[in-house]
Amino acid sequence: MPASQFYTRFTQWILSYRLPKQGASLLYAIGGTIFVGFLIMMVTGILLTQFYHPSPEEAYRSLQQMQQIPLVAFLRSIHHFTAQGILAMLLLHVVRVFITGAYKRPRQITWWIGLALLFIMMMGAYFTGTVLRWDVSGADALAHYQEALHIFGPLGDVLTNVLPGSSPMLIRLYSFHIALFPVLLIALMIAHFCLVHFFNLSPTPTEPWSAAEAAPPDQMKVGFSEHLWAIVRFSLLYYGPLILIACFVRAPLLDAPSGEHGPLKPPWPFLWMYGFENVWGIQVIIYLGAVFFGLLALVPLLDRSNDRAFKARRGILASGGVFCLLLVGLTLYGWLIPAQEHKGHHHEEEHHNGVVESLKPATTDTTLDTHPEMLSHSHDP
Ligand code: HEM
Ligand code: HEM
Fold first, then answer.
1. In total, how many domains does the chain have?
2. How many helices (H) and strands (E) does the chain have?
3. Is residue 130 within 6 Å of ligand 2 at its C-beta?
4. Ligand number with the minimum distance to the CA of 185
5. Domain range holding 340?
6. Predicted confidence (pLDDT) per residue in 144-179, tens digit
7. Ligand 1 nearest atom to the CA of residue 185, by list position
8. 18 in helix, strand or coil?
């Protein structure tokens, strides 16, 4: 098919695509806004890779240099603030889909693919991004990664740097951040969008046809361009101010890890786990993650009726409310309590050395292997 014919067919198809009336509302434009945020991350991320040195010895210095060049510092800030904004939007999208019962038949797989997207965004892209900062907060995030993965035995060993000859953690997590996770996210987004398109938007809980799989054909009144306009409007409203903030506020870069800093708290999306870590140690985050994603995965299996009306879903809506309040409460608690050193299953000294070890340059020098603490100074500016 010649390109011009393909273009005509494509535009015809887009223009003839009809959505129910909620397609023009901001609440149903949140998903598209997340996608716009992802595009911003891709563009700023690719530009940042032109300046960032992913080797353990150079990373921190390269970030310090990036902070000195106004345009690069600005790009870094956009990447940083948009990452926070995307995570907030994702949570809002999940709440919207949950409250409107949009996970019900036939959209269960759309929900589970969404969960995989949430997992890779939060535990993958956002988390590895924090490690890339390679300052004390990056070292702290990496320490959590190393310690928590011990739970998985030999698999954990492969993913961390305990096996002889394993590559530096920073280079591995960098390749995940700029290659593996974006590829996985794009593949899952394509699947998510195809399913959303195939089933169209779910009926709202307040409509007479709330139990139907989709709105009746005569109710499909909104054109795709109106839906797109809602997404553009919302994106401008949302990312505009975030980019404005990025003009004036730099993305954080804390001190280089030297082993002398006090305890730190995790970034806000993980703060709800902090109180548990104080009691049960670092590895509890694996169990908490499993409970969080496990409960969300169970939602379409627990609430199986077709009806999306609020009256018919009092139980699940109340449980969702309690779940949200618990997360908010635990986040506030984690925010308010003083930072404290966390117990791992490993001795504190060994734990610290494990991180410094992963910060070391690739070398066969046995002095450095037996005295990894020497290396911490090589990262000081
Ligand atoms: C990268 C992340 C995601 C992107 C880009 C995305 C994008 C979208 C878009 C564009 C829609 C169309 C309607 C709307 O915007 O509300 C949608 C619908 C939907 N999403 Fe997502 N989504 C993501 C993550 C999630 C997550 C985390 C979940 C749930 C766990 C989820 C579950 C759903 C469901 C069930 C629908 C169908 C809603 C309906 O028919 O009313 N999505 N998503
Ligand atoms: C949705 C996907 C992404 C998320 C959530 C994300 C998140 C992050 C975060 C939180 C940071 C730490 C920055 C800071 O807080 O100071 C970071 C850094 C970085 N990201 Fe991403 N990122 C994403 C996609 C990408 C892509 C696609 C690339 C490149 C192809 C990229 C390249 C980088 C680079 C080079 C850094 C280190 C520079 C710095 O810290 O400023 N990111 N990312």
1. 1
2. 16, 2
3. yes
4. 1
5. 20-379
6. 999 999 999 999 999 999 899 999 999 999 999 999
7. 1
8. strand
